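Intended use. Records like the one below are meant for learning the mapping from a protein sequence to its folded structure. Do not use them to infer anything beyond what is encoded.
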Amino acid sequence: VKIFAPNIEQRDVVNHLKGSPTEEKRNVLVESARLARGNIQDLAELKASEFDAVIFPGGFGVAKNLCSWAVDGKNCTVNEHVNSTLQAFHSAKKPIGLCCISPVLAAKVFPGCEVTVGQDKNVDGRFPDAETASAIAELGCKHICKNVNESHVDKANKIVTTCAFMCKAPLHEIFDGIGTMVQEVLKLA
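Structure written out for the chain above:
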């Protein structure tokens, strides 16, 4: 297992205690290295031939830094290294795992694929970003409704997705869903 991140400036830095942007500037690779305890490489160095699969975690950083979904929605652009990584694994018929908001990357890069970001309606207030499912459909992809503890496997494209924090759920349910995504990626590898 190796961890990679793009060597780019963050769109903005958020004070998560206050929930608002700061004036600070940070680099995605440097910030990711803090989280990965330094054991990380520039995404530009990733070679699909050296790995059996790739998994993209989610989080709002995906929607702000790996693509411009947070600002542009379905009209977003995908970071060139993220795009080329996804394309390389897809072309090699190697599995791709995506959770939380990161399934929008596949929806943007692979028209016609199947993904989940949870539900397409805000069921019991648990899916406040349910409109993301509609945007995925507008991109020509099929959104599959799943519960937080489930994942969806697009066998034709070897893409496995789960909604994770796109659902307001207890952490153990989010953990279970991510676990099923990882297990399904490993089955396809």
